Amino acid sequence: MKKQNLLFMRTGVQTILLLLLSVLAFAQSHVITGKVTDAKDNSPLPGVTVQVKGTATGTQTQPDGTYSITVPGADAHLVFSFVGYDPQDITASGNVQDVKLGTAVKALQDVVVIGYGVQKKSDATGAVSSIKSAVLNERPATNIEQELAGKVAGVNVSTNSGRPGGNTNVHIRGYNTINASNSPLYVVDGVIGAGPITYLNPNDIESMDVLKDASATAIYGARGANGVIIVTTKRGRSGAAQVAYDAYLSAGVMAKKLDVLDSKQFMQVEQNSYANAPKYDSTGFANGNYTDPRVKAKDRNLFDESGNPLYNTDWQKEATQTAFSHAHNLSVTGGNQDNTYGLFLNYSNENGIVRESYLKRYAARFVFDSQVKKYLKVGGSISFSNVDENRVDGAVGGLNATRMMIETLPIIPVTYADGHYGSNNDYPDMEGGENPVNILKNRKDLFKTQSTIGNVYANLNILPGLELRSSVGFNVNNIDENFYSSRTLRQLSADDQGEAWVRQERNNYWQFENYLTYNKRFNKYHSITALAGLSWQQYDNFYSRAGGKGFNDDFYQYYNLSVAANPETPESNIYKWAMNSYFGRVNYSYKDRYLFTVTGRIDGSSKFGANEKYAFFPSAAFAWRVSEEDFLKNNTTISNLKFRASAGLTGNSEIGVYQSLASLGSETAVLGGKRAPGVGIDRLGNPNLKWEKTAQYDAGIELGLWKNRVNLEVDGYYKKTSDMLLDAPVPSSTGYETIYKNIGSMENRGVEVTLNTVNIETGKFSWNTAFNIAINKNKVLTLGSANDDIFPGPYFLSNTNILRVGQPVGSFYGLRRLGTYGSDEAVEAAAHNLHPGDVKRSDTREIIGKGVPDGFGTFQNTFHYGRWDLSVELAYAYGADILNLSRHSGEDRTGQANSYATVLNGWTPDHQHTMIAQNRPSKAGYTTTIDSHMVEPADYIRGKNLLLAYSFGEETLRRLHLTRLRVYASAQNFFVSTKYSGYDPEVTTYGDAFAQGIEFFSYPKPRTYTLGMNVTF
Measured between alpha carbons, how far is residue 116 from residues 67, 82, 90, 126, 469 in Å? Predict the structure, then answer.
């Protein structure tokens, strides 16, 4: 009994002591509430993690930025953290704690995505540049490559057309090959070779990281020679669901019109030409082959009773329009600490300044990430886009709409009183092309592109620091082209009574990758990150086409090819390639000062010969963070100094399939009066066909001054591509002319400079400047055993392009125009069957220019004042030329169509010092060919973007129940300073590899004015 009482008393005392301790603890603990906002604009920040330091106690801020949390005592600390912001640690004193988080600009800029991982920029040993979404979206566009333009030194993005979506070419550190692709490798959310990326919604992009040197690109081995662009899309976020809506409305207008003859000037040239006809064709003139323009002027449909033109049509005005476009992006993101999701929707409707041209895109993307176990994380993404467009600038070289904007006669109306279209055919002796409005209305080239890209992954933490990642990715593209050209369009499809075709192309790609990543820090001086993996990739393409000519009317267009009187032979084709790869990388750091990287990849491809299926691509790099040394660590001037150097080998596998194999070709012969098909060897095989290889050496310096208010990065590089693939001649005894072999080489040397400065930074005002420049020199080293010249396309009148040892690619080839023959040079002119007033040219062809610039870059200034932002971005390029082939028909052929106004400067007996021939009817004889007069400088300074934005404050946001509201206005392409006479100096009309700068009546670029807003709630 006593023992029971004693036990009861002891238990009671313990209970009382516990109650007293609990009361004491409760007395010390308390609830803290507050609000977390953005330090820049005071906008609320939802989803911020608020955690009691050293404990598992935590919460997240609500959509209005508020939070409430119980802390154990007055000496506790609260840690506030949010992606993209600097974390903040505060003492938990008082009952209300409002916190402002500053944007971690340096942290965001300091993280770069590299192949199969991420890395701090300060720890990178290779040449890597990262551009975040906020910078990319400063220039709204439907083509993400246009947003990348000018943002990274060494990345030349040429927007070669003003049509909706543009026509972009991207090159990193110059051209590397002749017959393989020169485009960079695109990696989208881990899916390799996802380019071109023009179908992606730019608003979905979180960052674009550009890998430029061998140390950075060798992890992609055989596909990394042209550089790598890694695209990372936006993902979900933890916290309450957040809805964001971004939209803009834009108006595009003609930035420039070309100076062509008006009606009065045209008739003046017509009269001059008629008067000069006897000089150039005396026999034809005597036989009455030429009609006096005064007789033609008796046509009362075109002229009044005095012979004056009734019309003075501005065809550039009639064929173009103010192009109103709009785009809308809606996203919903949310989740919790373990599971996040994101849904992103887009609709874009871009109209072109040339009538009837447009691009419409519908896109949707869903992402998820789930920490299903402490040791297992899974996730994935899938994107779908549907793009519809009408391309009106096709049929290059023919009488298409962009050409007829210049060459349709000003004396012709768009339509006559009875409604039928006017035409050059209405005026005698002209080339009878249709007017551009008629072409635009009755000729359609419709493209529908449906793209689906996605991947799923699983991350398994096997041991501390050791992770296995498995992923499956795919990319499916389906392209439909539907074409119809009306029965009424002379010199296009009228002779064929209409033309129609349909074309389908299906592209399927999949990859399966597995790799281990090991992170370990030894003691306090050594750290290592090791990567090892393997990959399988496969791609297949199926193509089919059917068409016909000869229609009774225009009713069916391309919808019923069976009614065509002359069906074309249908076509179809299929091909496939596959790759198997093994890759690894080791990053080692000693004292965070001495950084080493070694990378290697073994690639095997079905494209290459039986004896050369596999190749090894290694690289090594070293970096020294001098600013971390004791003698410089606390220096008040130099805040960052790093030297780095790299060397490595990458490859280029982007050639056609089956090139190493002997191929079969089909032929037909008439035997016994019947057509008999036959099959034979069409091309010789080469079992020793192997990869093109590019060796690259890079040395760089990164310098930060005065707490990184000035950041300078300079890179110098040398690249040499060997084993280039070319058609080499074989003995005629084989029965064949060439065989595909590895016999060529070329080099690129260059320097890249990037400078970012914070010029002024006060409480309300700041001024930042960003400048970059890239200088590159390209040279062809060898072209086979004989080093014979190669003439790549396009072919226009003659070979326009030449590849010659010792010269850069993209060199223009032609005669030198020396002027015009004067009256005192009649004998010399006669020796060439010419007359005074004809063009005088050299006798031999030579290199007369080049389409690749020596240097290019951007210069941008950004100003912040209170809630206002102002950005002024300029772009420039120098050292390139343009081969303006439109001078052939727009200047050389007077009397056949309308001409540039420069023909008013043609040769006359009183004006003989001119480059332009004397006016004459085209059938009286004229000379035209590729010559130096068609070459013009392509140097320019462009007003790329002018942006003014305003972010609303907390009080307005509270009233509107929003967390963010930003409005902006911008002007893109707001000026261009250039000597080029055409629409724009950044141009090519052709798709050939080295056709940059070769123009034949391109689609003009617009000047675009935009109003937009960004809303989050």
Answer: 37, 25, 36, 15, 10
Tell me the mean pLDDT in the region 678-684. 71
DSSP class per residue in 94-119: SSB--EEEPB-HHHHHHEEEETTEEE
Q: Return left, alpha or beta for 837; rule: phi > 0 is left, psi -120 to 50 is alpha, else beta.
A: left
What CA–CA distance (Å, rounded) separates 873 from 943? 6
Q: What is the pLDDT of residues 581-594, one digit of tens each?
A: 999 999 999 988 99
Residues 6+ apart with CB under 8 A from 968: 869, 947, 948, 949, 950, 1010, 1011, 1012, 1013, 1014
Q: How many CA atoms lie within 13 A of 874 on its CB side?
A: 12
Q: Report residue 375 as tokens.
A: 């040791």
Sequence letter at residue 300: R
In the predicted structure, residue 87 carries a pLDDT above the cut 90: no
Exposure of 1 by Cβ count < 10 A (0-12 exposed, 13-18 middle, 19+ buried)?
exposed
DSSP string spanning 4-49? HHHHHHHHHHHHHHHHHHHHHHHHH-EEEEEEEEETTT--B-TT-E
Q: What is the C-alpha to C-alpha distance for residues 809 and 805, in angstroms, rounded to an integer?
A: 9
Looking at residue 107, its pLDDT comes to: 40
Burial string for 208-230 (b: 16+ CB within 10 Å, else e) reads bbbbbbbbbbbbbbbbbbbbbbb
- pTM over cut 0.85: yes
Q: Which residues pair with 154 in a beta bridge?
A: none
The pLDDT tens digits for 843-886 are: 999 999 999 999 999 999 999 999 999 999 999 999 999 999 99
**Confidence label for 22 from pLDDT (cuts 50, 70 and 90):** very low
Task: Name residue 211's beta-bridge partners.
Answer: 128, 228
Residues 228 and 114: their CA atoms lie apart, in Å, by: 10
736 is written with which tokens? 């064949």
Burial (0-12, 13-18, 19+ Cβ within 10 Å), 763: exposed
Q: Contact 853/880 with Cβ under 8 angstroms?
A: yes
Tell me if 160 sits within 8 A of 166, measured CB to CB. Answer: yes
The residue ranges of DSSP E strands in 557-658, in sequence order, are 566-567, 571-590, 594-605, 614-625, 638-652
